[in-house]
Specification:
It is a single chain. This protein has 335 residues and is an alpha/beta fold. It folds into two domains: 229 residues, Rossmann fold (3-Layer(aba) Sandwich); 81 residues, no CATH class. It is built from twelve helices and twelve strands. A hairpin with a 2-residue loop joins β9 and β10. It is globular, with a radius of gyration of 21 Å. Bound molecules: iron/sulfur cluster.
Length: 335
């Protein structure tokens, strides 16, 4: 087991989304609904680790990714980079954080500047962060393209000239250009054709191996994460429900939700989820998620008990390297 000091940590991170009250709501003294997107989620990511966070749409996994990369500020808890609270960082520390912790998005076309050529994008990152002397920028750009298996001829083309898979490779080259320690990959293959998905995932794993990078995969496809992750965290409606080594978690899932996922559906892609799952997702999206007490999974759980309605199950150590948030787990020690 990897016991190195974490690069990045979420400590009881919470995030809510709301909207201002309308005139009618103010007149009626009604509070607009608040979505509890994340509820006290704690995770740690170690050097060289491939870590996957899985969950349905509305589970909070992408919100967590954005909190980890400082694209969102958390409402509760804190995010630590190398032990330092992001909220307390000085500007120089913050710049180092933004260089060493990179994010790759689901839609690279939206994340890349449409007016810049690949050479301009990569060159800008190399120069701004002073990664190499000016006379070595061209060679460095060629090396980056080689890493992501693209020909040097793409340097003078713009984003609209590429396919989805090529754009994702360019986004990776840009992320790699600043020599990160960790890449948070948010649903990076979910918009791609199945044949291209495997190529991109294999590339990420190769890069992780070659460069000793840590990678956090945010995904809804269980088949995808099983064989590429050292550890997996399962989220449900803003809470972490199970965490463990990938092989052990897939071989013997302990949380009823993880069992449901592994037993009934190979993928959490919205087009494939059950009608019940879709309904839950829609409820989450509508803002009516309000289960502040009890277990968030209780309305779907086949093993629900009376205490599940009133007591929030804490994350408990259930076995070596395994933590589960369920009252069925007898281990009394909370994390
Ligand atoms: Fe099911 Fe209760 Fe466990 Fe929640 S705490 S998963 S409702 S048994």
């Amino acid at each position: 087991m990897n016991t190195a000091t974490p690069i990045l940590q979420a400590e009881r991170v919470s995030k809510r989304f709301g909207r201002p009250a309308s005139l009618l709501e103010r007149a009626r003294r009604v509070h607009p609904p608040v979505i509890r997107a994340l509820d006290a989620v704690s995770l740690a990511f170690r050097p060289g680790e491939a870590f996957s966070i899985v969950g349905e749409s509305g589970s909070g996994k992408s919100t967590l990714a954005r909190c980890l990369t400082a694209l969102h500020t958390c409402d509760g808890g804190r995010v630590l980079y190398r032990g330092r609270d992001l909220a307390l960082m000085q500007p120089a520390e913050r710049r180092r954080f933004h260089r060493r912790v990179q994010m790759v998005f689901q839609n690279p076309l939206a994340a890349l500047n449409p007016r810049m050529t690949v050479a301009e994008m990569l060159g800008e990152a190399l120069r701004v962060h002073r990664i190499c002397p000016a006379d070595q920028v061209e060679a460095q750009m060629q090396a980056l393209l080689e890493r992501v298996r693209l020909p040097g001829s793409v340097l003078h083309r713009r984003p609209h000239e590429f396919s989805g898979g090529q754009l994702q490779r360019i986004a990776m080259a840009r992320a790699l250009s600043v020599r990160p320690e960790i890449i948070v990959a948010d649903e990076v293959v979910s918009a791609l054709d199945v044949s291209v998905q495997a190529q991109i995932v294999n590339l990420l794993i190769t890069l992780q191996d070659e460069l000793g990078l840590a990678i956090v995969f945010i995904a809804h496809d269980l088949r995808l994460v099983r064989h590429i992750s050292h550890r997996v965290a399962v989220m449900y409606r803003g809470r972490l429900v199970e965490l463990g080594d990938s092989e052990a978690l897939f071989a013997s899932p302990m949380h009823p939700y993880t069992r449901l996922l592994i037993g009934s559906a190979p993928t959490l892609r919205p087009a494939h989820v059950s009608a019940e799952t879709q309904q839950v997702t829609e409820v989450a999206a509508s803002g009516s998620v309000a289960a502040a007490t009890g277990c968030v999974f209780r309305t779907r759980c086949p093993e629900v008990m009376p205490r599940c309605a009133t007591e929030v199950p804490g994350l408990r150590v259930a076995a070596a390297g395994r933590a589960v948030a369920c009252h069925l787990v007898p281990e009394p020690r909370s994390l």
